[in-house]
Automatic annotation (TrEMBL):
Organism, scientific name: Jannaschia seosinensis
Stored SUPFAM superfamilies: Winged helix' DNA-binding domain
PANTHER family: DNA-BINDING TRANSCRIPTIONAL DUAL REGULATOR MODE (PTHR30432:SF1), TRANSCRIPTIONAL REGULATOR MODE (PTHR30432)
Tree of life domain: Bacteria
Gene from which the chain derives: mopA
Protein name: Molybdenum-pterin-binding protein MopA
Length: 78
């Protein structure tokens, strides 16, 4: 993901604080090391966000197509 473990956890903790229920749960270590688990609330939020993304993409596509058509042709993609 291109970020440190600490930074990733800061994002997770921020998201967990923003929502009524935690989105990610930390699983304590042990013989197998522990880890994380997306909660039911996290699954619902991810599904809703992916739906929002898809709807925004569909709604914006005609505008993006129009804007691309207005661009100059750039030789060799420079």
């Amino acid at each position: 993901m291109g970020m440190s473990y600490k930074r990733a956890w800061q994002f997770v903790e921020t998201m967990n604080a923003m929502f009524q229920e935690p989105l990610v749960r930390r699983i304590r270590g042990g013989a197998k090391g522990g880890g994380t688990q997306v909660t039911e609330a996290g699954e619902v939020v991810m599904t809703e966000f992916r739906t929002l993304e898809a709807e925004a993409r569909r709604a914006g596509e005609p505008h993006v197509t129009w804007l691309r058509a207005m661009l100059n042709d750039i030789p060799e993609r420079k």
